């Protein structure tokens, strides 16, 4: 049965609202140190830009845009991210996801059934999740780098009106930390619920609990004044998620959150949880209107 289209009177602010012009990267020969510095610089400038935009300081926004362009823009950031996921610099994060759900995927091997995966912030059509026959991958990114990646803002993607347009898995690998605004991060996590389904095709060999795969720099939860692992657990639990798997390296934290429903909606404001002069200000704000 075809899906009916419904209009929405309200829409969370899109990521592209704060999008900056992009320039071609000048060189692919970036060292590990240069890659890290470029990523950190881009995040810092994007945060400053969001603050200037929210305060209505267009002159400062223009100045920051100029700095971002001088650094190579979003495309240079994407290049650095791709290099960071290369095998000699930490590898493809989707390998962790495939490892965690491998037993389930194995049951689909000799069937025509597939799990639908939405990869937000996709950089490649050749990563680990793209090579699994049991996955039907939809890839989106603010600035598509390949033909198999739709140029789309997740916050502007239409809310599905039928189960066939929803997903069994959503990947947010190093995506939430790119969002420059704490409230927009909360909106992104909240919005994921509308895109998840546990409905499988009749030929599916097993049941499956829908999941969100979340990857963040470890500093976002280990070295923030406003976010801890415990607070992240509270936020996700309030949205109806349970932590299925977790892994931490010296650079990244990987988490697989199963969606079980039964949310207990509550607001989460930006509040000091772990004071310290050397800590960062990464936060997630969840509003309940």
From TrEMBL:
S-adenosyl-L-methionine binds at residues 121, 141. Keywords: Methyltransferase, Nucleus, S-adenosyl-L-methionine, Transferase. GO terms for cellular component: nucleolus. Its EC number is 2.1.1.-. The keyword Nucleus applies. InterPro entries: Bmt2/SAMTOR. Residues 1-16 have a biased composition (Basic residues). It comes from the Eukaryota. Residues 1-35 are annotated as: Disordered. It is found in: Nucleus, Nucleolus. Belongs to the BMT2 family. PANTHER family: 25S RRNA (ADENINE(2142)-N(1))-METHYLTRANSFERASE, S-ADENOSYLMETHIONINE SENSOR UPSTREAM OF MTORC1-RELATED. This is 25S rRNA adenine-N(1) methyltransferase.
